[in-house]
Amino acid sequence: MMRYFDLLIEVTNASQDIFEAYKSKGLMDLLVQTYQTNDILVKLTVVEAIPKMGDSTWNAKFINEALVQKSMLEECFVKIFFPIVLANFYT
Fold it and tell me: Do residues 63 and 50 make contact, with C-beta atoms less than 8 angstroms apart?
């Protein structure tokens, strides 16, 4: 799955036209939808891929809007990573 996301992001970073074509086919939304699972490893795979989207303005804008709309930021940092940091801090 990670290789698929890496390839998708790499190709869409190269050209805004390709990004728009993939977005219209729903491929970009697949990245966001994949995050909507209870499987923490799948979520982490998506989170690992997100920074690579910042290499192009169109991908960065898309993921920023998707993150805000889907509340991924809150879930990622408040519900997942913050408890891990606290647990490690107190052990």
Answer: yes
- Kindly state the tokens that stand for 8: 């998708």
CB-based contacts of 37: which residues, under 8 Å, 6+ apart?
43
* pTM across the whole model: 0.69
Give pLDDT tens digits along the chain (91 positions): 778 888 999 999 999 999 999 999 999 988 888 877 888 888 888 888 888 888 999 999 998 888 766 566 666 666 655 566 566 665 5
5's CB contacts (< 8 A; 6+ apart) are 31, 34, 45, 46, 49
Contacts of 11 (CB under 8 A, 6+ apart): 18, 22
Buried b (16+ CB within 10 A) or exposed e, 23-60: beeeebeebbebbeeeeeeebebbeebbebbeebebbe
